[in-house]
Amino acid sequence: MGWRWRSRVNGGDRRLPLALRISATTGLSTLQFQSLSVSPFNVNVLQGGTQDNGTWQTPGNPVKWENTMIGDGGQSGFDVALPAFRFHTFFNATPDVNFSNGDIADWNWIGDPIYGTESQSFYVPIISDPLVSGSMYVGTGHVWRTKTWGMGTMSLAELRQHCTGISTRPATSACSAWCQAPPIGSPPHPACPTSKWPA
To answer: How many Å is the Cα radius of gyration of the chain?
Structure first.
């Protein structure tokens, strides 16, 4: 059974593709997407999490889905200015970022200090800012924000060297730059790094 999903984009309705018309005969009968995200550059490129079955992405083909990360598949998203950027979560506040179109070999952990520090849902709400590149928000016991794709002051090379996974990072490296978001109208937290282009 097919269905349509409508989204309000740039002030007007825009019909999204029927890429999710999945039945028991089209090859994804055992997967249940718990969330989906749509690329701001191509509405046919979708990414989504499937509990216990990883994160999947379609490159624009409604019948071809590629597994881009294993384990629990939670929330996912894109960046408004970097077409190759992706993020996903496993469960709780466990975000990884990727600057290579979701290549499974290039996911980098950015969960410090938000993972396990306060009460959080099994699938936390997490989004990329739809207007400001590099900014992301996650909701746990507080709203947290990063303005650097979670990299802080690290370069992309440093992130890839030190933060390729929870088990591979040295104890001295903080793999993330999340600050509690200030109340509306308040100045930003002085310790929150500002956005920089990944290099």
So the answer is: 17
The 8-class DSSP code of residue 183 comes to P
Asked if residue 199 is part of any domain, the answer here is no
Give the pTM.
Answer: 0.77
Spatial CA neighbour of 127 closest among 113, 137, 141, 135: 137
- Judged against a pLDDT cut of 50, whether residue 78 lies above it is answered with yes
Question: Is 188 contained in some domain?
Answer: no
Within 8 A by CB and 6+ apart from 167, the residues are none
Residue-range definition of the domain harbouring residue 82: 6-23+30-180
Cα–Cα distance for residue pair 81/150, rounded to 1 Å: 16
In a domain? residue 197: no
Dist. CA 75–CA 55, nearest whole Å: 9
Q: Are 89 and 74 in contact (CB under 8 A)?
A: yes
CA distances from 147 to 39, 50, 188 (A): 19, 27, 11
Q: Half-sphere exposure of residue 19, counting CA atoms within 13 Å on the CB side?
A: 24
How far is Cα 122 from Cα 2, in angstroms, rounded to an integer?
Answer: 29
**pLDDT tens readout for residues 46-71:** 999 998 889 999 988 888 889 999 98
Q: Please state the domain count of the chain.
A: 1
3-state secondary structure of 156: helix
Average pLDDT value for the chain:
79
Residue 53: half-sphere exposure toward Cβ, Cα within 13 Å: 15
